[in-house]
Design a protein that fits this description.
This protein is mostly beta strands. It has two domains: 4-170, Jelly Rolls, CATH 2.60.120; 174-283, Jelly Rolls (Sandwich), CATH 2.60.120. The protein is 3% helix and 48% strand. The chain has one helix and 23 strands. It starts with a strand and ends with a strand.
Length: 284
Amino acid sequence: MSSVNIFPQVDTAQISSYEPNKVFGSCKDMYLGRIDSNTVFRMLFKFPTVWIPDQCVILKAILKIYVQFGGMLITSSFSPYALMEDWDIQTITWTHQPLFNPTLSGEKKSIKRSGFYSFNITKLVTKWYQNEIINYGLILKNEELTDGTYKRVNTIIHSNLAPMLEITYTQKSEINLLPSRYISKIEEIDTDGFYSFSSTVNASLTKTITCHIENLGKKPVEIKFQSSPNSIDFCDVSSETTLIKPGQLIWTTPYCFSPYGRIAVKNVNPKEISKIKIWYSAQE
């Protein structure tokens, strides 16, 4: 299965409780988090998804920022939340900031010192792409309860350190396993330190599915099976993961009575990459 990576332009804005009516516009750097009870900073991000073709599967969406100053070096967890209202980078202020959905967020990430930080927002981008929610962008914030948890983020436009979004997608190849004696499907997935996902398997008309998975790369990977009631929202079938060594071929028959399923895979070492090959086989 081939995939495509796209890096859309990310519009970035800062808002501050200390200056609630100020429009900050485009800045070389922006603050994020809480300095004290009177000064809290948040960042908003907006990017288009309309250029993703129809009938695709979002395999991975990663928002990356570069923290150039860690403030008082106090560790704090930051999360990106889906916005529920539209906003404009030329007029956005703390007073008129859009509402966000506190139950719909991407990956939470602990930040202490300078460096790159990546947030997995695959679920949010998928919901935008599926038109389940409207794409108003994201707001990045921490719990804002502890003084000194502020950070400074590089936001120079067109810089290698500017906020960046990487979306990996592939043409939809959902496997409709219709009643028959034997049906098979093959796909390949590139892996890295974040979970990537196989195409969705529609298993509602089958009794048994067998998966053969081979690690084609030179680094170990771990996999887990996920189930879904609607082919959009997924949960882990088990808290356990399966390790596949380089060159190793395994087989398994996942037991989960859900209409849809998929395989999640990532490298054991986040800094490594690999590739897996999956054979799906089904019987009536």
